[in-house]
Amino acid sequence: MSELTGKVALVTGGSRGIGAAVAKRLAAEGAAVALTYVRAEEQARAVVKEIEAAGGRAVAVRADLAEAGAAERAVETAVRELGRLDILVNNAGFLTYGPLAEVTVEELDRVLAVDIRSVFLAAQAAARHLGEGGRIISIGSCFNGRVPGANFVLQATAKTALTGLTKGLARELGPRGITATIVDPGPIDTDMNPADGDSADFQRSLTALGTYGQAEDIAAAVAFLAGPGGRYVTGTALAVDGGYTA
């Protein structure tokens, strides 16, 4: 029997990259998975089909988490479609970078809405359904521990805010046996940050291993935290960054 057999997970931003890898790994461990997408419906359906072809159960849910009510609706849809909720993975994020002077109010509002507000609201909604052994896992960033240079102030602000939110969730929900954790990726080879991109060599140079990671590396860490091995881990972050913050 797989470690997550009988569990139900919701993975936000699960149509591609890290989110898709997480959804597929949790399904491989036995969980039924709901995954959200905004525009990439075809990619989301492809992830669902891959999970189903392997004998799992999955559903794709459209949700623009920049909208205030979308996170709660996604949680309720997952519960309605799959019967319960045991694991929430907050993966959706809005990537932007540039000089401080050029950051617009619209960019600030969208990043905070997706990266922070939606995490708060999803956790709030999920907490109504999670029972003993429930998990809230958020995907952060290596910027929590190290900002390598200029132009990352907005990204660093948003991802670092997850620390306080996660510690608060851990204290609030710990008495119910629910954990809250963060996985902080380093440079990961995805279509948003390809290993052959313009800044790839610079990012490699910041890691101790000198390499990019794969989305599956992050998925493995999430699966560990979601499973029995993560039962005594809460209120903290796990860096999967190739030594970026060493």
Automatic annotation (TrEMBL):
Domain of life (superkingdom): Bacteria
Pfam annotation, one family: adh_short_C2
EC number(s) per entry: 1.1.1.-
InterPro entries referenced in this protein's UniProt entry, alphabetically: KR_dom, NAD(P)-bd_dom_sf, SDR_fam
Any GO MF annotation of the entry: oxidoreductase activity
PANTHER family the UniProt entry points to: OXIDOREDUCTASE, SHORT-CHAIN DEHYDROGENASE/REDUCTASE FAMILY (AFU_ORTHOLOGUE AFUA_5G02870) (PTHR43639), SHORT-CHAIN DEHYDROGENASE_REDUCTASE FAMILY PROTEIN (PTHR43639:SF1)
Protein name: 3-oxoacyl-ACP reductase family protein
Species annotation: Streptomyces sp. Y1
